[in-house]
Amino acid sequence: MGKSKALGKDAMGIQKTMRFKDYLGDGIGQLPLNAGSCLVGQLTYFYTEKVGLAAAAVATMLVIAKIMDAFTDLIMGKIMDDVSFRDGKARPWFRIMAIPIAVIMILLFTVPAKASGGVQLGYVLITNILCSAVIYTAIAIPYGAMIAMRTESSEERGKMGIFRAIFGYVTGMIIAIGLIPITNLLGGNQAAWIKVAVVFAILSFISMIILYKSSKEKVGESDKEENIENADDRDKLPFVQSLRLLFHNKYWVIMLIANLLMNISYGLSTSGGTYFAKYILGNDNIVALLGAVGLIPTFAGFILVGPMTKKFGMAKTCLIGCILGIAGCIYRVFTPYSLVSCLVGGSMATFANIPIMCLTGALVNNCVEYNDWKFGHKLVGMSNSASSFGSKIGSGIGGSLIGWILGACGFISGAAAAKQPSAVTGGIFAFSIYIPLVLLIGMTILFKMYDLEKIYPQIVTELSERKKKAAK
Prior knowledge:
This protein is mostly helical. 78% of the residues lie in helices and 0% in strands. α15 runs antiparallel to α16 and α16 packs parallel to α19.
């Protein structure tokens, strides 16, 4: 306790608990999550261009896996709220899932090359369900909950989000910039993709072990120390009752919808960039250039998001990001074939994404204290899992929209741009520019409505007073 006191209090008067090494240890946990999600985001391209599967069929398999994934999020959240291990409620899952996450990353790309189309699609479905609905979920829900379990300080939660976003974005950018050129350099075939997957599998395993070793669950320890009656059982509510309470938390509902829209946008950008580079700009290796230029607004965003958060608060910072993203999309609407437009407008959208990427986890976990204050139940696991439900559905819709749109436009797998139907161009513009613009407008409205930060210090103070009274 003495060490925590030495750290001082944040701007809201809440005790700090984290040092620089704690942020680093926590942030590295984002590497396997983003490596997994970014590799999954490239699967539509891999399945259609390298395996030769039909785009619409691939999209259907992926969206089925994502729907199942969303529902297993809810189950995992309930498990986390109900079950405690000797070394915590969230932390043990990082150790348990270290080997499975490495294995599944490789299996995603080992589609039987000589099998029939039906067998290949079955393999795609099963491996994606195991990856997204089982293994990824068993890591992501506890990892998201650690923000609330590690500290009550909104400032520290925001910093955790920034460090996580940095690790995650660097991982994502390495994949975005290097995946196509490196796999092309290695032969451009399925074997090349498998070799790259092995490298990320090894890195992911190491990261999970580091995360487990460095993680701590501090929030809730005081309850146990003060022997507050049923401190461990407060969140063991019936599943339906837990969901009902969450839907009465207006801020959690806002973040649920925001996560849905945000992840549709991420799903489109993750999977759609390669199609835009190949069929609009004429060379899929341009993805590397787009990613390299995107590093400039990315680093600028990471530098500025901290000061912006201090000045405007987390929700307003995200709001500003959305407005910049809208401006970038509008610019691209009027100059869709221009590489310069793609670079400039894309850079604006990239800068806009950084605050959202950094701060949404903290905004969701601030809803945990609101749950406790309003209803007497924190629901840490359910808050993160049910919000993640929207994220998974969103990313599934985003990734599958590309396949569905291409299928509707008559896209021919593996064909050159000149041999594609003219409608394919309009479809690529739709999922690269027009739909993201609409999504950003929706997110702008939602972040405008999120005003929890105004009453957050009052909530934490009143919760602390309740604990003291309950301990007497």
